[in-house]
Design goal:
This protein has 186 residues and is mainly alpha-helical. The chain has one domain (9-185). Helices cover 70% and strands 0% of the residues. The chain contains nine helices and no strands. It has helices at 9-15, 18-32, 45-53, 56-69, 76-86, 94-115, 124-130, 138-153, 157-185. Helix 2 packs antiparallel against helix 8. The termini are far apart.
Length: 186
């Protein structure tokens, strides 16, 4: 599954600017946040505000504050989400943000693949990122589409970031529902 404009997730991350990369990584973290702190959906709001302003100093401060607010004992999946936050760079540079966005992309796709009914076979996440989503379950495929949409819209200023935030909220609801359903049937 390639994006609407035919570019793979790897290409989209490779071509994104600082704001797009920060939005991409933050959106992955935000969508997976229910695994770490289900009752803290607003904890990343100041980080989103810093991304909207493109303010590197505010970004570093907001990320540090979110780390403190979201410091909790973690299950394996929650630990992976916490790791995305811990690895968020303090520096607002394309290089640091690109590495973080790529890391968050892999983590978010792997977590979504883990919650798909059939799971995600080895190598599927990397194939999805390269543009081949054959065999991806609905949860993994949905996360892939959201990641692509965030990268494609984040470059369009405040309107694009608003859409990225909407996609994150929607994706968080989907993941929360899947996790809740699994807990009820376990």
């Amino acid at each position: 599954m390639t994006s609407m404009n035919g570019r793979s997730l790897l290409e989209l991350i490779g071509g994104a600017d600082e704001r797009g990369l920060a939005a991409a990584g933050l959106a992955c973290l935000d969508r997976c946040l229910p695994l770490l702190a289900p009752d803290r959906a607003d904890a990343l709001r100041p980080v989103w505000a810093a991304v909207a302003r493109g303010d590197g100093a505010a970004w570093g401060e907001a990320v540090a504050k979110a780390r403190v607010e979201l410091d909790a004992d973690a299950t394996e999946d929650a630990g992976a989400v916490r790791g995305m936050l811990v690895r968020a760079p303090a520096d607002w540079t394309a290089e640091a943000l690109r590495a973080w966005a790529a890391d968050c992309s892999v983590t978010a796709l792997a977590l979504h693949g883990r919650y798909d009914a059939a799971g995600a076979p080895d190598g599927l996440v990397e194939r999805c990122r390269a543009g081949d989503a054959d065999g991806a379950g609905p949860l993994l495929a949905g996360e892939l589409r959201r990641q692509q949409a965030v990268l494609e819209t984040a470059a369009h200023g405040p309107t694009g970031l608003r859409r990225a935030r909407e996609l994150s909220v929607e994706g968080g609801r989907v993941l929360r529902a899947v996790v809740s359903r699994r807990a009820r049937t376990a």
